[in-house]
Amino acid sequence: MRILIVGSGGREHALAWALSRSPQNPDLFIAPGNPGTASLGTNVDIEATDIASLASFAREEQIDFTVVGPEQPLVEGIVDVFRAENLPIVGPTATAARLEGSKAFAKSFMEKYGIPTAPYRTFGADAFDEALGYVRDQGAPIVVKASGLAAGKGALVCETEQEAEAALREIMVERAFGEAGDRVVVEGFMQGEEASVFALTDGEHYVLTVPAQDHKAVGEGDTGPNTGGMGAYAPAPVATGKVLMEVCRRIIEPTLAGMREEGHPYSGILYCGLMIEDERPRVVEYNCRLGDPEAQVVLPLLQDDLVSVFNKLAHGNLEGVHLQMGQESAVCVVMASEGYPVSYPKGRSITGVEEAEDSGAMVFQAGTRQENDGTLVTDGGRVLGVTAVGADLEEALKKAYAGVERIHFDGAQFRSDIGYKGLRREDSPREQ
Ligand code: GLY
Predict the structure, then answer these.
(1) Residue 71 in contact with ligand 1 by CB distance below 6 A
(2) What pLDDT shows up at residue 431?
(3) Mean of the per-residue pLDDT values for the chain?
């Protein structure tokens, strides 16, 4: 089996790792990949957004199926191009990927199909005064979002009306997110605890992975600016069995039915970013892919042959597929460059990865580069995802942080409280 993975981050390294464990012993190609994926397959020098070259590669190299990590190529139509050439691929079409690519579309879709989410209004970029009037009517806290893709930075949680005014100005007047801010969604702030739920779906049938929880803020105790994610753990006990039943009944099933009704069946991976209050889940956002760093904790818990599951998904038939998730826990601690998420240096030498792996952790690489002499150096904001599986959350945390301790690069920053909300709930029995 020949498989192409599109992307270059920690999620794609975790995908390569999970696929490489298959008894089918697949040949993996990762475009463009990173030094970590190079040890599991062949890195291919094609950017994740160069859709035409990726399709040519898949055709010429007789790739059996392709898995897409990041959202950008999905929103830009990679699935449409591959399907037009009969190249099997896991993911939604561009119109279906609007669930992530256009927050304005996602909100009106949820409203139309009665899917629980926060109240909202959408404004064009020239309607600053109107948007500000809505903010004043609603009061703070309130959330201001650029409708388009903004590399995970386009949602601004505003504690005061002044902050919301500044956020509107940033998106609508200063155009900080460019075209992504052509439309702006202003929505109510949701109280509760977040969870990420992933459904693999062929548009009709679906299966869930274990739920995970991301840590978006850069600082301990969820303080400071939001990042792409500073760590994750799974399963997230906030997503109890009762919550997951509600997620299926009130969110996933109506979403899939609604997309079929709209004439754009959704296939691939549906990521529901949820806020859960008193066991009532509401949708914060949809994404059209696996989360990063959630993939790094969800995939190691999967007992099934991922090659077989993704092959069925790429061929649009998940009927009869059930996922077996282990009873263990997994934790990923992201080690990031000093100054991330604002600005950060690159090219700092990284040591200790092998020692961390010898200690029982898995080190998924993200912002790394290998110099000609073989030295591994930093090359991005999120550098490594140090990941471990344990019998429970506590054990997984111990193993992941033991791995972190062995790794060094100048200015490395990481949160030392990954999983703290899960630990707080640890006394409650798992209800899944
Ligand atoms: N962990 C957040 C995301 O993947 O969008």
Answers:
(1) no
(2) 46
(3) 96
Residue 35 exposure: Cα atoms within 13 Å on the Cβ side: 19
pTM to 2 decimals?
0.96
Euclidean distance between the first and final Cα of the chain, in Å? 34
**Spatial separation of the C-alpha atoms in residues 289 and 287, rounded to whole Å:** 6
Does the N-terminal peptide bond of residue 141 adopt cis geometry, omega within 30 degrees of 0?
yes
3-class SS of residue 146: strand
The pLDDT, as a whole number, for residue 153 is 82
Ligand 1 near 152 CB (within 6 A): yes
CATH of the domain at 24: 3.40.50.20
In short, whether 292's Cβ falls inside 6 Å of ligand 1 is yes
Q: What is the pLDDT of residue 186?
A: 98
Same domain, 176 and 198: no
Whether 144 and 237 map to the same domain: the answer is no
Q: Residue whose CA is closest, atom 5 of ligand 1? A: 291
Is residue 50 one of the residues assigned to a domain? Answer: yes
Looking at the structure of the chain, the number of domains it has is 4
CB 214 less than 6 A from any atom of ligand 1? yes
pLDDT reported for residue 428: 59
Q: Which of 11, 74, 103, 196 to mutate to test the pocket of ligand 1 (most atoms within 8 A of CB)?
A: 196
Choice from 149, 226, 283, 287 to test ligand 1 binding pocket (greatest atom count within 8 A of CB):
287
> Do 207 and 307 fall within a single domain?
yes
| Ligand 1 atom having least distance to the Cα of 229 | 1
**How would you classify residue 279: left for phi > 0, otherwise alpha for psi between -120 and 50, otherwise beta?**
left
Q: Is 291 in the pocket of ligand 1 (CB under 6 A)?
A: yes
Pocket flag, ligand 1, residue 285 (CB < 6 Å): no
Cα torsion 106, 107, 111, 115 to 10°: value is 70
Taking CA atoms only, the protein residue closest to ligand 1 atom 4 is 291
Residues 376-403: tens digit of each pLDDT: 999 999 999 999 999 999 999 999 999 9
pLDDT-above-90 percentage for the chain: 96
Assess if residue 354 is contained within a domain: yes
